Amino acid sequence: MVRETPYFSYAVGELPRGCQLCVRGEKLVLFTTGACPRDCFYCPLSEKRKGDVVYANERPVKTVDEAIEEAKIQEAKGAGVTGGDPLARLDRTAEYIRALKEAFGEGFHVHLYTTGALATKKALERLYDAGLDEIRFHPDLFNPNSRLFEVEIRNIRNAFDFDWDVGGEIPSIPGQFERMKWYAEFLDKLGAKFLNVNELEFSETNLRALIDRGYKPISNESAAITGSLELGLKLLEWGGENTSLSYHLCTAKLKDAVQLRNRLRRMAKNVARPYMEVTEEGTLRFGIAEYDDLDELYTLLVEGAEVPEEWLYVNRERGRVEMPEGVAVELADAIEGDVRFFIVEEYPTFDRLEVERVPLP
């Protein structure tokens, strides 16, 4: 009954619509705030996102228009609204959802993750009226004695008063099988559609808390937690036999090797300059030259080396002149002195993360 998907994940039943778009790289990741009513020990949120900030993918945004522009670059067919807890900034979250729906149409699928702590009937009505299609709850399942847990469970019930898809999304934490089963049964009795289970991973911010609790990585090359995947599979096998929910076990490999790569590919073809090569992985590959004086370097390349101006781009923000890879290889062999040539690969994202730099002799 448990099947392996083409995306290195595992499923029982049909993947939620939000996941179907996500694995194809078609979902904008809309982070509406780092604020959250909880402080989970396994939270992977980076330090720069723990404040009250907004991101569309890797792009910090100040306005709805910037988020819409990012969605256009990605050719997104939907958005996943996340945080923190997006309901901690309800007005903002509803505004962004409504604006995306107005910009791209009702077919633009929006799902949202929330703890449930702030999901009052009025809050849920605001989200529904804004156009939210799918809501996923992650209550304080692994701390059932917390003051928020009872509130979250009560609020989850409210979500079934609206005509949208309701499900759960939780991490697979070794040693917590009984709590995970309890939540699956709870959702099933309410008539939820699905339960997503995420393979637990180390991050810079949860590393110490996980190590202190005895969790270990599966290898030196992976951030995935030993036993998390196996526990997730165990839950899917049990759930497929004992509930009517659909299940999706989202693996660390899916996020890195499939979802991110597919999103990068969609973005790369829209942001690549003529001198950039789009690789199979969705990165941008090209040559660069660095020198203390960019204007002097540009003059040297155009007048001294006779490189056509249309082959060059002066990137003052990065302090370099960019060019086709083959041109950089030829120039590195011909120009002597302090000019430094490299072949670089970057993500086509707003932050243009550099993933490789090869110096040319």
From TrEMBL:
GO terms for molecular function: 4 iron, 4 sulfur cluster binding; metal ion binding; oxidoreductase activity. Residues 21-241 form the Radical SAM core domain. Keywords: 4Fe-4S, Iron, Iron-sulfur, Metal-binding, Oxidoreductase, S-adenosyl-L-methionine. Its cofactor is [4Fe-4S] cluster. It comes from the Archaea. SUPFAM superfamilies: Radical SAM enzymes. Belongs to the organic radical-activating enzymes family. PANTHER family: BIOTIN SYNTHASE-RELATED PROTEIN, RADICAL SAM SUPERFAMILY, GLYCYL-RADICAL ENZYME ACTIVATING ENZYME MJ0021-RELATED. This is Fe-S protein, radical SAM family. It comes from Thermococcus celer Vu 13 = JCM 8558.
